[in-house]
Amino acid sequence: MKVLIIPEDFRKDQYMLKPIIEAMLTYLDRPKSKIKVLTDPLLGGIDQALNHDQIRKIIERYRGMVDLFLLCVDRDGNTDRRKRLDNIEKAMKDHLPSGKVLLAEHAWQEIEVWVLAGLDLPTAWSWQAIRAERDPKEKYFQPIAEQRGLLAEPGEGRKTLGLEAAQRYGQRLRQKCPDDILSLETRIAQIIGTK
Question: How far, in Å, CA of 21 to CA of 23, rounded?
């Protein structure tokens, strides 16, 4: 299976999304899936990532090379985000060739929370507080990356921490992120017919 991850901005998100989606597909007995992160065009934020015309152009450009398109964005505290993603999925069905699928998911509240789910966190931190925080990247992710001396690496710690979190996909990410990670996994499993 060939998968194209469409992030709202690949420059940092690629370091988290690729290893996590690889771990998810391995968990779903698809370890040989070819997974790429969209780098061309660069989507410079949520407005472009949720733009129907932009997503349609990406599908038209890559549909011959991709079986599964995964649009992965931050929720950012926006309670209407799921509805917008559902609308994009519905609108793009007409642009997808037979057998090709677009699934859209939002991280609760940011993709960095998926990474935090796989890490050993300070005992003073509450997982419920992390999930509820509007800006968990600044309040939780950056302090861990800084403490571990990773801010100078690619993605400001996302490369190392993304790989580390992906190694605990089955043990932690699925359980800690049922509204987003597990939801996406379940939808992919229905499409590919596993688990």
Answer: 5
Phi/psi zone of residue 146: left (φ > 0), alpha (ψ -120 to 50 degrees), beta? alpha
What pLDDT, in 10s, does the model give residues 132-169? 998 999 999 999 999 999 999 999 999 999 999 999 99
- Rounded to the nearest 10 degrees, what angle do helices 10-27 and 158-166 cross at? 10
Q: What share of the chain is helix, strand, coil (3-state, %, to 5)?
A: 55, 10, 35
Token pair recorded at residue 18: 């690729």
> Which parts of the chain have pLDDT scores under 70?
194-195
Structure tokens at 12: 């940092």
Please state whether the predicted TM-score (pTM) of the whole model is above 0.85: yes
Angle of helix 10-27 relative to helix 183-192, nearest 10 degrees, comes to: 60
**Contact at 8 Å (CB) between 23 and 90?**
no
Chain CA centroid to CA 72, Å: 4
